[in-house]
Amino acid sequence: MTSAPVLVVVADRTDSEHLVEAIEHSSSLPSAVAESDPGAAMFAFCRRPISGLLVDATVGETKGADLGKAARRLFPDLPVVLRGSDAVPSFLEEPVAAVGSGEDVVAALTAVLDGTETAAARDPTRVETIFASLFEQFPVHLFVKDRNGEHVLANDWMIDPATVLGRADNEIRDGEETVFREAIYDDDKRVIEEGEPLNAIEEYSSTYDRHLLTSKVPWYDADGAVSGLVGLCQDITERRRREQRLRNTNERARKIALKTAHELRNELQIATGRLELADADDPYLDDVADSHARLLQSVNEVVRLATQQPHDRDREEHRLSAVARETWRALTRETHSLTIRADSLFVADPDGIRLLFESLYKNAREHAGEGVTVVVGATDDGFFVADDGPGINVEPQARVFQAGFTTCPGNSGFGLYIARSIAEEHRWSLSVGESETGGARFDIRGVESQRTAD
């Protein structure tokens, strides 16, 4: 019989103490240790030898069977007893037992342990204790998932591990984050099935109001087969907010430059027209014409510089829902609403893609007014941004992309011009049409995209 203790995971402290006492007074069982937190219980396996797991059918927000499943991913031969359960779930194989209310827990434990020395009953290695320290103390979100994308381990830096253990992200229904979680699950399967890391993907969690930088790598077993994945999320919220403030400042400067250039160009056109009517024999007219030409060249250069995206900027992989939600929260009020119809991953310049979304959102807000609803979704060759406003009452509709064109008093008329310029810098196309609700819909096409969720 192994001397390693049984791990008892029960929420009620008094009940837990009684179970530990009953186990320790049994002549057929070793000692016992108790833990009321399912998330912390998983790290007990990295801290000390464990002979078996006794867990209630429900411990807080965690199902006992899910905890047993997560523990079995670490130690496939770990004996498990579910207390207060009528039956053993099909995904938990022997040695396992279900013990109903009033039944003999000690006898059930004795039967499943059966004197067997399992892998979990040995002393943890130094590597395992290092691993546990890393998970418990590093100020980042760390997690491990199995081949099904189900959580095996997770620390409590951002989430309560008890809410995710034994579950995949696509099983967690979380309001507006449901599409986001389905996309995460698709990414997980991509890493697991293709064995390719997914590095430095920017994501936004509306539940926690945090901007995250996520990386995932395959988890290989001793035989070199992929057993799942290991991942981490870094909080880059403050960095993103500083960048947003800088982008707002740059956008204001950009629009001032474009508005000034537009007005100068109009005045030059008037002056040039008047010049053509002047006395052709005036010796100073050629000098005036040359001056106008130089001014127009300078104006065109201002427009070029104000709309140009740096060609040498590193483009990064982005999640559509993350960029859409991040930009939305920075610009809009609670009276407006955003819906993500479908998600995808695509490559773009970080500043450029956010400015493109800002321009399209501001256009929706200015034309649709209070209470506007905006829908963003992935398409086969890019994505779209649509609203439920009055639509584009202009013929042809493409006029809205002209520099200085506006139907709203006080508007500079450069927002959609900038959006199209950014799209063209990425070698995409930006077109306008009618949304399902009769509002405006802008389609960005030609995007290198991996569609991940409907």
Which keywords apply here?
alpha/beta, five-stranded parallel beta sheet, Beta-Lactamase, Rossmann fold, 454 residues
Strand-helix topology:
Elements: E1 6-9, H1 13-24, E2 32-35, H2 38-44, E3 52-56, E4 58-59, E5 62-63, H3 64-74, E6 80-83, E7 96-99, H4 105-113, H5 126-137, E8 141-146, E9 151-154, H6 178-194, E10 198-205, E11 210-220, E12 226-235, H7 237-277, H8 285-307, E13 316-319, H9 320-331, E14 337-340, E15 343-348, H10 350-368, E16 373-379, E17 382-387, H11 415-425, E18 429-434, E19 440-445, E20 449-453
Fold and architecture overview:
The protein has 454 residues and is α/β, with parallel strands linked by helices. The chain has 4 domains: 6-121, Rossmann fold; 126-235, Beta-Lactamase; 239-307; 316-453, Heat Shock Protein 90 (2-Layer Sandwich), CATH 3.30.565. It has 11 helices and 20 strands. It has helices at 13-24, 38-44, 64-74, 105-113, 126-137, 178-194, 237-277, 285-307, 320-331, 350-368, 415-425; strands at residues 6-9, 32-35, 52-56, 58-59, 62-63, 80-83, 96-99, 141-146, 151-154, 198-205, 210-220, 226-235, 316-319, 337-340, 343-348, 373-379, 382-387, 429-434, 440-445, 449-453. The strands form 5 sheets. Strands 2-1-3-6-7 form a 5-stranded parallel β-sheet, sandwiched between helices. Strands 9-8-12-11-10 form a 5-stranded antiparallel β-sheet, with helices on both faces. Helix 7 runs antiparallel to helix 8 (285-307), helix 9 packs across helix 10 (350-368) and helix 10 runs antiparallel to helix 11 (415-425). The longest helix has 41 residues, at 237-277.
